[in-house]
C-alpha cells in the first residue's frame, strides 16, 4: 500500500446501531482500491482523542441510553474534536453521532442530552413518533442522489454555516418540516441514514477518502484515486 490513514471510530462499542459499522467496511473496500491502508482505532469512554493523530473520523448512531453515556464523556473530547473539525478534518457522523456534534438533543423521555456544539444544529424530540423508512435525497451542488433508511426520534434544525447533505425527495429527513436531510459543514458530513450510508452511496466514501488523502499527502499525485469509479448497484 502506498498510503495509510489513521481512522478514529468514536464510541464504536456504544454507538453502532443498524449496521453503522458497515461504513468502515465500505471505507476499507474503497481505500484498498485507492492503494490506501486504514488503521482503525475505537476511541471510547476515557480514551484520549487528539486531533493531530487522526486523518478521518467516523461517529455512528445509537439508542438514547447509550447516547446519554457518550454525551457525558464526549465533553472531555470537545476541544480536540472541535479543533479537528475547524481545521477541516473529514468526519462522517450518523444519527446519534450527528446529533451529538450539535448543541443538544432532547431525548424521547424529555431528557436534555448535551452535544459538543462544534456544529450549530440542535435536535428536538417528537411525541410518540419516529421517522422510519426509506429515504431519497439530492445534493443541490453536486446533484448526487443519496439513498438510505432513516430511523430516528430526533428532529434536527440546522444553524449557522450548515448546509443540508441533501433535499428530501421522499422520506422525512432532518425534521419532517423543511425538506433538509443531514448536514455538510467544512469537511463534516452528518446524516440520519443508516443502512449503512456508505455501502449504498459510495461517492460519499470517495469524498471522505480523497479529502483525507489530500490533507495528509498534499504533494502526492492522486490522479488514480480521483479516477476511481464507484459502482452503485441498487
Ligand atoms: N436516539 C436518537 C434518536 O432516536 C438517535 C437514533 C439513532 O442513532 N438511530 O433520534
TrEMBL record:
The keyword Zinc-finger does not apply. Belongs to the CobB/CobQ family. GatD subfamily. Gene3D superfamilies: 3.40.50.880. InterPro entries: Class_I_gatase-like, CobQ_GATase1, GATase_3, Lipid_II_synth_GatD. Substrate binds at residue 130. It comes from Pediococcus damnosus. GO terms for biological process: cell wall organization; cobalamin biosynthetic process; peptidoglycan biosynthetic process; regulation of cell shape. Forms a heterodimer with MurT. Keywords: Cell shape, Cell wall biogenesis/degradation, Glutamine amidotransferase, Hydrolase, Ligase, Peptidoglycan synthesis. The active site is at residues 95, 194. This is Lipid II isoglutaminyl synthase (glutamine-hydrolyzing) subunit GatD. Residues 6-201 form the CobB/CobQ-like glutamine amidotransferase domain. GO terms for molecular function: carbon-nitrogen ligase activity on lipid II; glutaminase activity. Its EC number is 6.3.5.13, 3.5.1.2. The gene is gatD.
Amino acid at each position: 500500500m502506498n498510503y495509510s490513514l489513521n481512522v478514529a471510530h468514536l464510541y464504536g462499542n456504544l454507538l453502532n446501531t443498524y449496521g453503522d459499522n458497515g461504513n468502515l467496511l465500505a471505507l476499507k473496500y474503497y481505500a484498498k482500491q485507492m492503494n490506501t491502508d486504514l488503521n482503525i482505532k475505537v476511541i471510547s469512554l476515557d480514551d484520549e482523542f487528539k486531533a493531530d493523530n487522526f486523518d478521518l473520523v467516523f461517529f455512528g448512531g445509537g439508542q438514547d441510553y447509550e447516547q446519554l453515556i457518550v454525551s457525558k464523556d464526549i465533553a472531555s473530547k470537545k476541544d480536540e474534536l472541535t479543533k479537528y473539525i475547524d481545521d477541516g478534518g473529514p468526519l462522517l457522523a450518523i444519527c446519534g453521532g450527528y446529533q451529538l456534534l450539535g448543541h443538544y438533543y432532547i431525548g424521547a423521555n424529555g431528557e436534555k442530552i448535551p452535544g459538543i456544539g462544534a456544529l450549530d444544529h440542535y435536535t428536538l424530540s417528537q411525541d410518540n413518533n419516529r421517522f422510519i423508512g426509506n429515504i431519497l435525497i439530492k445534493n443541490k451542488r453536486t446533484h448526487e442522489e443519496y439513498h438510505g433508511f432513516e430511523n430516528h426520534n430526533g428532529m434536527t434544525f440546522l444553524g449557522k454555516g450548515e448546509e443540508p447533505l441533501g433535499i428530501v425527495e421522499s422520506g422525512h429527513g432532518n425534521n419532517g418540516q423543511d425538506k433538509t436531510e443531514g448536514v455538510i459543514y467544512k469537511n463534516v458530513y452528518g446524516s440520519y441514514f443508516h443502512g449503512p450510508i456508505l455501502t449504498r452511496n459510495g461517492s460519499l466514501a470517495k469524498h471522505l477518502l480523497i479529502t483525507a488523502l489530500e490533507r495528509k499527502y498534499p504533494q502526492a499525485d492522486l490522479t488514480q484515486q480521483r479516477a476511481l469509479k464507484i459502482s452503485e448497484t441498487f
